[in-house]
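Example A, followed by Example B.
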Amino acid sequence: MFQSINPATGAPGATHPEHSAAEVEERVARAHATWAEWRVTDLATRTDLLARIAEAFEADKRRLGELATQEMGKTLKSAIAEVEKCAAAFRYYAQNGPGMLAPRTVDVPGGKATSHYLPIGAVLAVMPWNFPYWQVVRWLAPTILAGNVGLLKHASLCQGVAAAIEETVIAAGAPAGLFQNLAIRSGKVGALIADDRIAAVTLTGSEGAGAKVAEAAGAALKKVVLELGGSDPFIVMPSADLDAAAKAAVTARTQNTGQSCICAKRMIVHADVYDAFLERFSAGMRAVVAGDPMDAATDMGPLSSEEQRQTVIDQLAQIEAAGGRLLLGGEPLPGKGAYMSAGILVDVPIDHPAAQEELFGPVAMLFRAEDIDAAIALANDVPFGLGASVWTSDEAEQERFTRDIASGMMAVNKMLASTPEAPFGGIKKSGHGRELGAYGLHEFMNLKTVFD
């Protein structure tokens, strides 16, 4: 049995039964049978369904948003915005799918070669709790368009969301086996990956979980896409608009209570503007209102659980013991709920193990860089390479950052955010493969070349 706990109050919520081995087998068999039919549907059938699913998400966004808030604590306004973003993703693939799947023909000696994008089967997704709708939809929308079918193993603490997604997709007119939730524990994922009826697997989660899934997929010789952790740099150079940069830094570090892979976590500021940026950034972080996530005036809700809050507290203690200093905030708030104040860490020893980890909470690490070379060195001096945000009006610096920062994504003079149109993913221990855009669609398709 899965037990939902409201992280804003600590009160137990709904319970959700685990699927038995027989129920899991029934769902896998249904997915496999459905794929045999869905794979040969025309693109109009697929895109029409995607458009209807978008409408269903949009129409039910308040209820779906409330469910996410109750299960993992994000503010209601951000939860509703997440559902709206999901609707936009379904519409994007509905409108642009045919162009993405059009065959490509090139001349070859003696004739032509045409590349076709064809479905491969059932794709298993192992998804986390931090963006419980968006993480699923950025895989699910292209899965449906591709002619594949999907099986979801969602995080234990958001089983209500998982069930709601399945209900919404089915209510929009999807075949019963096109998308199904598997209410199971992580220990059962390996056997699923080994099942011949599962064609591929995608995971968004921790580095450790990614390694286990990649190992299982490798043993089964199956395609895998991994979107893992990040410790994204936020670099501020002397030519930056400091007011805009500081405002974006506050949002980047506290959105979703700091529980986002692409939340900027390490603020790397040029020495010439360090003090001026810190003044603005500190004022912004102090002004962040943590409280009831259902209240529209709240900036930041609780962390997803007491366990997650304690993990962040332990990381901060390790960094402080090694010489780091909490300049402000970063403290558990009194009363019920897994609340924590927004904080800033300075004097962080960059080679300390805790400073090399992903800090999944609303606390920023602030570093001083003497020049662009030092800023890039600091940015790259972690095992991760997911995203980055750079603030400079100097085009030569922008080109240098594009070339030399080791990341899968980078934003210039703005906060990094995902969008359905562009590929999303990282390098190094942040994973491999891409989601979203045409690249994400093609990850789980057979690129079949026909010579004639």
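Example B, a separate protein, is given below in the same form.
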Amino acid sequence: MSANHPPRTYADIIRDSFTRLLLVVGVVIVLTVTITLSVDQLFRAQDQAAKLSASLQTTQVSNFNDWLTVNRTSGLNSHNTFVLIKNADGSTTSLLPRTTSLAKANSWSIPFTHLVYIKNWGLYFSETLKTNGRTYSLFIGMHVLIGNLHVLIAVIIIAIGLSLLIGLFFVRRLADRISAPTIELAEAAQAAAATPETTQPKLPQPTEPVEVSQLAKDFNQLLAAQNGRLERERQFISDASHELRTPIATIRGNVKLIERRGDKHPEVIPESLGFIDQESLRMQHLIENLLHLSRADRAEVALQPLDLSALVRGVVDHYQPLVAQHVTFQGTDHPTMTLGDPDMLHQILVALLDNAHKYSPEDQQINLTVVATATTATLTVADFGPGIAAADREHIFERFYRVDASRSNKIEGSGLGLAIVAQLVQLNQGAIAVTDNDPHGSCFTVTLNRATNS
């Protein structure tokens, strides 16, 4: 909108549209009635002229009395009907006193019609007839038509004016009724936008109009997703702060200990340096995992066909010497082609093996299985550890979530490994799930899309 045309409200749009519609309808009615009446009057005048011409052809009209006789038989209004006779010798005879002045007045013919407008006289239907050496010029007045049109147009204008006054009142009420849900929705959205740091409330959802109701429903779905993201961000910041606070406090405490007692008790220095090294390494791993998550959130992955079975065999061969548990692999004899990113799938598999290694006893094995169907390829990592309670499975892939905090504190980790795995699986257009292993332990199942063998 330009500066001269500010945005309009519902009421303005409906009122302007209603006014234009009513004016257009009024103009159409006026034109239709005017054309209909004009055509009807023209046909009537033409019929009267035909009757008069027939009477003039059979009656030798040469004076006013003859004209009165013809006029009475034709049924014409003598006040609006005039005849001017041009004789064979060139002389002119007027049957009424005013006919001579009518013939001398300025006149304009309307093309393609017999209508003639005579200055100071009005509109006439004109017809010329030649018979018996005489030329009869007939003028039939259209004053009745003009009068009827004036009355009709005046009535239509009054009706349109009254309709506008009454219609605008109801249009205003209709616009207010229609715009009320939208205004309420906009005010609620403005109130929600004014407090972006808090959980956004649901916007009011009217039952009608349907379009506004659907818009409010979509807004509420968007707000619900936004609230979920805000809650996860708050939880992430809180958990990250907590996880970083512990190693930093340990490092600072040991530094202070060295400063206070290092000179007199040098034996505390190696132990304190060991704690500092351990906690700094823990903080380094935490920061690296946070960077992994940050990169995964913004990553754009170009998936390519790869042999999942070959990738898993390679990871198992390199991983087995690093852990005490026996790692087994069961797959297909032929290539299992899937769509994915090799580096990300390698990272996913190593993370799942690390998780199984941390929670499994050394005398238990870790089983890897690859199963292929027509459309999917499934990778399963199963351990025989303590397992995961059903209540915890819903949160196992959330950031910083750790099962059984009292037990997890004894096991090294930041609670970000499985969150990274879930994000990487999603980037590879796959799905991950966790179930119980038989007789005990956990099974992590990653499902990927198949690719054509190449």
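On Example B: The radius of gyration is 50 Å.
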